[in-house]
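Note to self: keep these together.
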Amino acid sequence: MDLTVEMFKPEMVEALKRYEKHIVCIDKTPDECQESMVRLMDKAIKAYLNRGPHLRHGIALDRQLTIILSQTDCERPLCGIYFNLHSPYQKKHAHRKSDVKSQRSEDN
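Structure:
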């Protein structure tokens, strides 16, 4: 069975409905989200088709979306589309203690 982006159109349409209704995203408009979803679906299909013999998933992601294709007993893999929780207002992590100690010893 040849996998195509079109095969997963129902899942993408449903995810885009949720995006437009529930997701507030400064980085992507709904149209940009759809473009990203198509691009990531293509990458997930390639990852799925080229996975190792004991691996069951093809995964593609960016900062806002994760797409996972999972092997099943059927020919068509399951498709999961997830919206990554992210805030552009999230504070950057402070330096780790070891980094701070290294900096102090260099200053002395």
